[in-house]
Amino acid sequence: MYKQIEIDFDVFKELTIRLKSPETTENDVIRDLLGLGQVPSNGTAEAPKAPWVGKGAVLPHGTELRMNYGGREYRAEIFDGAFLYGGESFKAPSPAAVAITKNPVNGWNYWDCKLPGSTKWEPIKKFRKK
Fold first, then answer.
1. How many domains does the chain divide into?
2. Count of CB atoms situated within 10 Å of the CB of 67
3. Based on the domain organization, do 67 and 40 belong to the same domain?
4. Stretch 68-83: mean pLDDT, rounded?
5. Nearest to 32 by CA among 62, 71, 69
6. Structural domain of residue 114, as residue ranges?
7. Do residues 23 and 74 share a domain?
8. First-to-last C-alpha distance (Å) of the chain
């Protein structure tokens, strides 16, 4: 097996609080926090899904996206390294925004995101490196 690690009581307590069911282990909680996916019953880890990376920004798999246009809210997500909107994958925010607006727009100015585990919506351009 692997090396055991020591943790302090506060970390143990927090892991225990986050157990979702009696079958969930502390290792499951840590894997979830790190975005590694769960270990299937055959003992091999599910391959982690890729984050989307562009212009220095890194948005993890599972990031929720929203865009307001024409008085309507549109939703998308980061799925395995791409913007997923309407069942279609886009490699960058602008093509995903163009799919909605039907006009050439800078998607960095339109999309907001909510990172996995967060409750706060933020503009994606906040994560872009200048």
1. 2
2. 22
3. no
4. 95
5. 62
6. 52-127
7. no
8. 44
Q: How far apart are CA 97 and CA 105, in angstroms?
A: 7
Distance CA 57, CA 66 (A): 17
pLDDT (tens digit per residue) in 88-99: 999 999 999 999
The yes-or-no verdict on residue 48 having pLDDT over 80 is no
Residue 73, burial from CB neighbour count under 10 angstroms (0-12, 13-18, 19+): exposed
What tokens appear for 51 in the block? 């984050």
Q: What angle separates helix 26-34 from helix 9-17, to the nearest 10 degrees?
A: 90
State the pLDDT at residue 41: 55
Give yes or no: residues 43 and 56 share one domain.
no
Neighbouring C-beta atoms of residue 34, cutoff 10 Å: 9
DSSP letter for 126, please: G
Per-residue pLDDT tens digits for 7-20: 888 888 888 888 87
How far is C-alpha 59 from the geometric centre of its chain's CA atoms? 6
> Residue 42 burial (CB < 10 Å; 0-12/13-18/19+)?
exposed
Among candidate residues 59, 42, 40, the one with its CA nearest the CA of residue 51:
59
